[in-house]
Amino acid sequence: MTAQTQPVRLEVSDLTLAYGPTVIQRNVSFNVARGSIFAVMGGSGCGKSTLLKSLIGLLPPVTGTVQFAGESYWGASAERRVEIGRGFGVLFQNGGLWSSLSVSENVALPLRMFTRLDEASINMLVRLKLALVGLGPAADVMPAELSGGMRKRAGLARALALDPDILFFDEPSGGLDPITSKRLDDLILDLRDGLGATIILVSHELPSLLSIADAGIFLDAETRQPVAHGSPRELLETCDHPTVRAFMNRERMETVKNAGGHRNGS
Amino acid sequence: MKHRHAQASGNIQARIDRAHGWTLHRENGQVVVVISGDWIARAGGMSVGAVDHIFDHDADKVEKISFDITGTGRWDSGLIAFLWELRSGAAVRGVVFDDAALPASARRLLALATAEETSVTVSSDHSSLSRQLGRWAIGLGTTLFGATEFFGDVLLGSMVGLRGQLKMRAVDLRDCVLDAGSLALPIVTIVNFLVGGILAFVGAVQLSRFGAEIFVANLVGIAVVREMAAVMTGIVMAGRTGGAYAAHIATMQSNEEIDALKVIGIPVRDYLVMPRVLALTAMMPLLYLYGCAIGILGGLTVAVGMLDLTPTAFFEQIRLAISGSQFLFGFGKSIVFGALVAIVGCRIGLQAGRSAADVGRAATSAVVVGIVGVIAVDAVFAICANAVGF
């Protein structure tokens, strides 16, 4: 089976993540199927973004492996990692746009750096990517002049610049109003269906998670390890873990624990 | 977005890039575009500018455009860009765009790319020269007015500070004093020592021609005490501390920290500006005194090394040359320079925009305005001193 046809696009096994002596998460294992939308869920401070960092090459894990299409990422040489990373599209929490470049220059920079396309082709691709996210008229605007939602969409256009087949989104709908957030969710679905890309998203926005993700993992801040696997809807309907239930049902932890204790006791 | 629908077969053939291309079939006003090969954008699989060729190739009016994609291999945005351009071209010319033969995913992307776009209003300046000039003058006036207001506010802050009612943390003041004081000593030492040495060197070369070597001490002493120690220390602090103040406050601005202070009701002047202004204004005269000593030491080193002067004779000559009033003059100037550099740094930091580039610009302009300001104020002092015959 060739790398392009592997059904599993990303395989994470037994990952331990730490900042210095502080362990953030341990025993993290999951597979992401090609073309699916995989959600990394959990409350604030549970290590979602840290996990994302180790998937996109910003933070080496202490133990465990990350494999893209069957190839070990952290086991590869630094040059090879850069090569693999060129297949990633990453949308950072605040867009991560380069503030000294206009929106179109932000999208064009990866194309100029990593392809040998002529100027007309680059311009064409930049216009297309901006049109895909509905930001055609904002091409010459500086990032500082954009609203939060537009900044995210511009970041998305930049993430799409090199036609990645795996996309990472850090809190795509964080800080957005429900309407803008819904539009971004639709856009993500459209892009997934249109591009056939695999999407890994980190989020704690329930409505967004329920409407777009088809698989996922739930990280627990207290025990510092994953406590549930499954799509957000499955977790909502069937998961018994108190933290997951509290998260999914927006209940207060004490209530859940008491209810659990009461039920266990009776 | 290398398309997996087209490569599901996974055979080896599909992975070898085949040259992309298109040909046309025309019949009865219909154009069928036959697309073949791999259209991978980053491998050069694009065809920009084909639209005119396809629609305007011959005199017959094209009424409908459709596609034959049976020979198409792998594709990504290279193909979408081609189709998108054709679709826009067809819309402009009133030609029917028949996308039925295209893969569903390509149709979805085309629909997305032609969907309603967010309107963005960009302010651009197309007004006449006189209007722009007027706006610039008003802007300059506003800046000067704002700066004066800020200066007044800081002065009022000092009054409040004298009554001990400033809302600032002692630990911030201590950090600023440390930063503007002892941590600045190494660079102040180097600069003043070298300036003292250079003055002595220039003086020695000239004065030894007249056998007046001993007057090197006068030259070094007066120049260092009256001008150089205060000015050089002011310039060093504008570059080192003024720039840092501006960058720090501008970064706080971009992180919304200043907004947070304002919302909670902590006065920015008391909390951010006053510790810096007080620290630098208090430390600068001390740095000046230290700079004088080091500058004279630099002069002494060169004088003793190059000329046959003894340290005792050098010091005795300096004692005769400089008076307490000259010390006071330099001392007074250094207080003004300290306040000026700190106020300029804080003001420019608070005025900065919110992007990373704005932080850089704020730091640069704080340094430039600080240095120019120190030299300009020194010139004003020189003119005033001359006018009163000092």
Automatic annotation (TrEMBL), chain A:
- Keywords noted in UniProt: ATP-binding, Nucleotide-binding, Transport
The UniProt record lists the keyword Transport? yes
Q: Which residues form a coiled coil?
A: none
- Output the Pfam families linked to this UniProt entry: ABC_tran
Instruction: Give an example GO molecular function.
Output: ATP binding
Q: Which residue range or ranges hold the ABC transporter domain?
A: 10-246
SUPFAM superfamilies, alphabetically? Answer: P-loop containing nucleoside triphosphate hydrolases
Keyword check for ATP-binding = yes
Q: Which Gene3D superfamilies match?
A: P-loop containing nucleotide triphosphate hydrolases (3.40.50.300)
| PANTHER family associated with the record | PROTEIN TRIGALACTOSYLDIACYLGLYCEROL 3, CHLOROPLASTIC
What name does UniProt use for this protein?
Polyamine ABC transporter ATP-binding protein
Species: Thalassospira mesophila
